[in-house]
């Protein structure tokens, strides 16, 4: 049992809130909400000051978000791809954040604090755009202030229920700190199990870039599909040789003759969740030999294999639906952006024209 003297709450309560929120904002899977709720109870008991705790929570969140925003500004899309290797859900979160950014602009920074999964990915994603840092931190401060106030006031509002919960916990020889630690461990275990359940079946249907390079040499190479969304393809206008673009909801457009061929799907995300999910959907529709490139387009590039320019929209529209696109004349070399401005295709027009 972890003992935490009552007198220490007034002395170290705000500091604990700062550290907890900072750790959570840096991406370590330790929830910050339970401590904010218990801090709300301590505020009702006059052991903590609301403004001190709120300031500590806001400062911790802003510090963590500034680290991610700066990293996104310095490393660009390479950071997003590195994050994607850590979780199979990052790609979906990136798509959601992009869609919200296009719709609401920088206000997504504040909204994301209340959307599960977006609070961590939004700061580095905004760092890769042309959003002015002052605008980002203004929206970020507004969002984290509203977020922290919501949970502190929630703890104060349900103070009686939380106090009854604490008394029940103490009857069993535990303390509130024990509960917080147990919740953190349960949350971490949940994340690990969720990651394993998603990755385990999909890993069975992957192909390495080296294996794909060897598969391209025989007389009947595999059919390769580019599963990247349009905004990503506009931002990174290059692809594997002799590929065709495919959308997740356009499998019926694929030529029936491709069903019997070896088929490979790729996207730009190193964790390639989209490609693997699409591969599973294609197998369900009758495709017999479908695999996803392990590591996606980035892994292919890192190993020095050839890429080609993506045809313009006009030339793509004239291609035969469901058949691999013809390679462009010659090969082109494309340098990956490592500067401060990436994700241009998902930024609002006002920001991009600035």
UniProtKB/TrEMBL annotation:
<protein>
    <recommendedName>
        <fullName>Rhodanese domain-containing protein</fullName>
    </recommendedName>
</protein>
<dbReference type="InterPro" id="IPR001763">
    <property type="entry name" value="Rhodanese-like_dom"/>
</dbReference>
<feature type="transmembrane region" description="Helical">
    <location>
        <begin position="100"/>
        <end position="122"/>
    </location>
</feature>
<dbReference type="Pfam" id="PF09335">
    <property type="entry name" value="VTT_dom"/>
</dbReference>
<dbReference type="Pfam" id="PF00581">
    <property type="entry name" value="Rhodanese"/>
</dbReference>
<keyword id="KW-0472">Membrane</keyword>
<feature type="transmembrane region" description="Helical">
    <location>
        <begin position="134"/>
        <end position="153"/>
    </location>
</feature>
<keyword id="KW-1003">Cell membrane</keyword>
<keyword id="KW-1133">Transmembrane helix</keyword>
<feature type="domain" description="Rhodanese">
    <location>
        <begin position="223"/>
        <end position="309"/>
    </location>
</feature>
<dbReference type="InterPro" id="IPR051311">
    <property type="entry name" value="DedA_domain"/>
</dbReference>
<keyword id="KW-0812">Transmembrane</keyword>
<feature type="transmembrane region" description="Helical">
    <location>
        <begin position="28"/>
        <end position="44"/>
    </location>
</feature>
<dbReference type="InterPro" id="IPR036873">
    <property type="entry name" value="Rhodanese-like_dom_sf"/>
</dbReference>
<feature type="region of interest" description="Disordered">
    <location>
        <begin position="309"/>
        <end position="337"/>
    </location>
</feature>
<feature type="transmembrane region" description="Helical">
    <location>
        <begin position="50"/>
        <end position="71"/>
    </location>
</feature>
<dbReference type="InterPro" id="IPR032816">
    <property type="entry name" value="VTT_dom"/>
</dbReference>
<feature type="transmembrane region" description="Helical">
    <location>
        <begin position="174"/>
        <end position="193"/>
    </location>
</feature>
<dbReference type="GO" id="GO:0005886">
    <property type="term" value="C:plasma membrane"/>
</dbReference>
